[in-house]
Amino acid sequence: MMRVVHTVAELHKILLPYWRKGDPIGFAPTMGALHDGHCSLLRQSRADHNALTIASIFVNPLQFGPGEDYDEYPRDLQNDVKIAREAGADLVFAPSVAEMYPRGFVTFVDMEKLTERLCGAHRPGHFKGVLTVVFKLFAVVRPNHAYFGQKDYQQSVIIQRMITDLNLDVKMHIMPIIREPDGLAMSSRNAYLGTKHRQEALVLHQALDRAKELIGGGEKNVKKLQAEVRRLIGAVKGAKLDYVSIVHPETLEDVNDVSGKTVVLVAARFGKTRLIDNVIVD
Ligand code: PAF
């Protein structure tokens, strides 16, 4: 039977025997509005033979900037619990904001450089919020294995960096992007898209596919590749490009030409909805 708990104290009671015995815990932190991408994380945790697979559902106010979609973010705990159960979760941790950030909370996890680039440049403070909540969730769950999606590529790099820099005893697993049948990367924010923007948003995947195809054909010139991605996205009336970047997979620094493992990332707005996507080429 799957359990749903809302407090750190309840969670602690359930997890204590697992911690004591050293039974492995698999953990997928989420903000809810679960889709197949999240389910792939939970399924992988089960496939990895963790003794317990945990999903957290918490819309983290710290990672939303002023004017962003914190209030609109889809929340349906009952439905999420059902989806998590079907995907193989043994436990859902769904704390309140007061449980995570009680009165007097003033401690944060911050990181330089990696968080200042790409999405960090467009969403000041976002990654400080992500790192702080993920650190806290790791502290309360004490997972052995943590599962994240490659769709949030920069997020996965900075969380891996935090694990390394702060000597956290967690093994990180980054799972491939799960796409809708027409190629759109699954995201809880896709629910905001009207019919027109939903159709227009396909250009992100199409432009990345084109970049991948050009690289496969031998194109190494980053300027040319970026220009082609910009041209394709620019041709879509409702799309407003935030960035197209071609970067080193770990440092996230711009590369001059494509050689070895490289990541092509895009972020664009369709109306008020900001979407991201990426592809790893080698
Ligand atoms: O990727 C997300 O859904 C969130 O950024 C995370 C990792 C759950 C932290 O709130």
Please provide a written account of the structure:
There is one protein chain. With 282 residues, this protein is α/β, with parallel strands linked by helices. The protein folds into two domains: 3-175, HUPs (Rossmann fold, 3-Layer(aba) Sandwich); 188-281, Pantoate--beta-alanine Ligase, Chain: A,domain 2, CATH 3.30.1300. Helix content is 39%, strand content 20%. It is built from ten helices and nine strands. The chain has helices at residues 8-21, 36-47, 77-87, 97-100, 118-122, 126-141, 153-165, 195-200, 202-216, 222-234; strands at residues 3-5, 25-30, 52-57, 91-93, 145-149, 171-175, 239-247, 262-270, 273-281. It has a six-stranded parallel beta sheet, with helices on both faces. Helix 2 packs parallel to helix 3, helix 6 (126-141) crosses helix 7 (153-165) and helix 9 (202-216) packs antiparallel against helix 10. The chain starts with a strand and ends with a strand. The mean pLDDT is 98. The structure holds pantoate. Pantoate binds next to strand 2 and helix 6.
Outline the secondary-structure elements.
Layout: E1 3-5, H1 8-21, E2 25-30, H2 36-47, E3 52-57, H3 77-87, E4 91-93, H4 97-100, H5 118-122, H6 126-141, E5 145-149, H7 153-165, E6 171-175, H8 195-200, H9 202-216, H10 222-234, E7 239-247, E8 262-270, E9 273-281
Helix pairs in contact: 2-3, 6-7, 9-10
The structure holds pantoate.
Pantoate binds at residues 29-31, 60, 63, 130, 133-134, 152, 155.
